[in-house]
TrEMBL record:
This is Cytochrome P450. It comes from Linum tenue. PANTHER family: FLAVONOID 3',5'-HYDROXYLASE-LIKE ISOFORM X1 (PTHR47951:SF7), OS08G0547900 PROTEIN (PTHR47951). Keywords: Heme, Iron, Metal-binding, Monooxygenase, Oxidoreductase. Heme binds at C235. One of its GO terms (molecular function) is heme binding. Belongs to the cytochrome P450 family. Its cofactor is heme.
């Protein structure tokens, strides 16, 4: 089940939209219906479980919905709202996380110096007799810089539709225009970044320890680093995504040493845009245990 993010003629010539010349609307509607069916089935099954229900994210959302309904509030009033939240979590929190992890591992496998620095930090903060845990993350500053540097080089923003006429940088933007902020180009602009195409996490480490430059929330005065957007319509899961990226990457690098399969070609960095920026050639890497004992996974 997948939608290709190919350009849609209907976006460029709205008068043609009702003909859906490329069948993109038809395809997207089928995917949406399929997802709706999946979420409806999961919800129905859960509602039928009676007292044995798990206290997980779905259960919490169902309870909030029930409370909203009882209080006559509109915050999570309908099953459609609930399914929309489940869809955001399922689509936002899966492929784009694994995609960034794939880029980060590719960069690290090509960059011995950075890989060594990451491992040194993990050894100091976590130690080879432990798995990475949530409380370690706040001290993994170098790893955090690796995540940011990966986001700088390999993320872009999505197109947005303007809902009202406005002016930006002297340009008039009529209502209904498709607007694309080219974060990919901003993140590689030599006006803002030294040697922009180099993978150099140090650029995100501040010498002065109490002031870290550029968080993932687009909070920098000149919008130089905006991997998740900025302002009102920033990625709703940016905080969670930042934490997941650090946790998954730290766990993979702490638990295992990674190398390319014997005889593999040099890692290819060419990419293509398909909602996210994806690697043209998927990364192949082989793990070997790095921790002091495999019993730690038990
Ligand atoms: C590496 C992981 C992720 C990346 C790269 C990413 C990226 C983005 C980007 C670029 C946007 C659009 C921002 C804009 O137009 O200015 C966005 C929107 C959004 N993201 Fe994420 N995201 C990630 C993870 C997540 C997760 C984990 C969730 C939910 C649990 C999530 C939920 C959303 C939602 C709901 C929106 C729409 C926000 C709105 O329109 O108000 N994302 N994301």
């Amino acid at each position: 089940m997948e939608i290709n993010s190919r350009p849609n003629v209907s976006d460029m010539f709205p008068l043609l939209a009702r003909f859906d010349l490329q069948g993109i609307l038809k395809e997207a509607t089928a995917v949406a219906q399929r997802l709706d069916w999946v979420f409806s089935s999961v919800i129905e099954r859960r509602l039928g479980e009676g007292e044995k229900r798990l206290k997980d994210m779905l259960q919490i959302l169902l309870e909030i919905r029930e409370d909203s309904e009882n209080a006559g509030s509109s915050s999570l009033a309908s099953m459609t709202h609930l399914k929309a939240i489940l869809q955001d979590i399922a689509t936002g929190g899966t492929e784009n996380i694994s995609n960034v992890i794939e880029w980060a591992l590719s960069e690290l496998l090509m960059n011995d110096r950075v890989m060594k620095n990451v491992k040194r930090e993990l050894d100091e903060i976590v130690g080879l007799d432990s798995l990475v845990e949530d409380h370690h993350l706040k001290n993994l500053n170098y790893l955090e810089a690796v995540v940011k540097e990966t986001c700088r080089l390999h993320l872009n923003l999505f197109p947005r539709l303007s809902t009202a006429p406005s002016t930006l940088g002297g340009y008039a933007i009529p209502k209904g225009s498709m607007v694309i902020i080219n974060a990919w180009a901003i993140h590689r602009d030599p006006q803002f970044w030294d040697e922009p195409s180099e993978f150099r996490p140090e650029r995100f480490l501040n010498k002065d320890d109490d002031k870290r430059p550029f968080d993932l929330m687009g909070n920098n005065s000149n919008f130089q680093f905006i991997p998740f957007g900025s302002g009102q319509r920033i990625c709703a899961g940016a905080n969670l995504a930042g934490k997941l990226l650090r946790y998954v990457l730290a766990s993979l690098l702490h638990s295992f040493d990674w190398k390319q399969p014997d005889g593999a070609e040099k890692i290819e960095f060419s990419d293509y845009y398909k909602i996210f920026i994806k690697k043209k050639k998927p990364l192949m890497a082989v793990p070997t245990l790095r921790l002091s004992s495999q019993d730690l996974f038990a």
